[in-house]
Design goal:
Elements lengths: L3 E2 L6 E5 L2 E4 H24 L6 H27 L1 H6 L14 H19 L3 H25 L14 E2 L11 H23 L8 H17 L18 H18 L10
Parallel strand pairs: 1-4
Antiparallel strand pairs: 2-3
Length: about 270
Amino acid sequence: MFAISFPNIDPVIMQIGPIAIHWYSLAYIIGVIAGAFIIKRMSRLYNPEVITDKQLEDMVLWAVIGIIAGGRLGYVLFYDLDKAVANPMWIMQTWKGGMSFHGGVLGLATAIWCFCRRYKINFMQAADLIACVAPIGLFLGRVANFINAELYGRITDVPWAIVFPGGGPYPRHPSQLYEAGLEGVLLGIIMACLFCFSNLRQQPGKLMGVFMLGYSILRIVVERYRQPDEPIGLICNIFSMGQLLSAPMLLLGVYLLLKVNKKPEDRD
């Protein structure tokens, strides 16, 4: 059976004494910086009254805290609660891996909602801007997963299969790259086109609805090629945890798209 050898890339970019810089951490940093820059440009070009530059700087900090806290707690609750109960200090050891996208979304949404309430900013308009740049972070994060040789796919005989370290001797789907291409590149292009060439940006919540619907569908599809998360495996021998967590997100996306909006000035 033909298989591609895994490109052995060191997950650590550089290390100075006890301080190590990982590709995964760099993906988060670049994703946040790039997202903030693009949101600033989007806001200036199309709706400058949504958020000021100073407010955007503050929002970035709130967003980072929400993503990290939500992503970590989501992973603990959804994927490895037993380990956290046995060793509560492990919850704080984020450098050892373990972040949940769906948990990160909940943490981000909570942080941005609190931020918008404090600064009297329309939450749905802010959410639309974030939805348009979220694929950048998704792309970088999945590429980092590939470099770390984690979250690999199921055993397969496709010509582009890869033998991952820790995945046994069998070739597997590079599902991280599938997600990078679909949830990052494809969804990013869709969001950019809708923002630039449609009137959805004038309907608060619609772009967020498109993102949630698109991400959920793509994640549910790719999960068919991804190795089920241990120690959970397949739930009822049918669904992965990623698919189950994406289902409510899909329904919320449909709701936002079908919901009739009030004018932005009539909303909190």
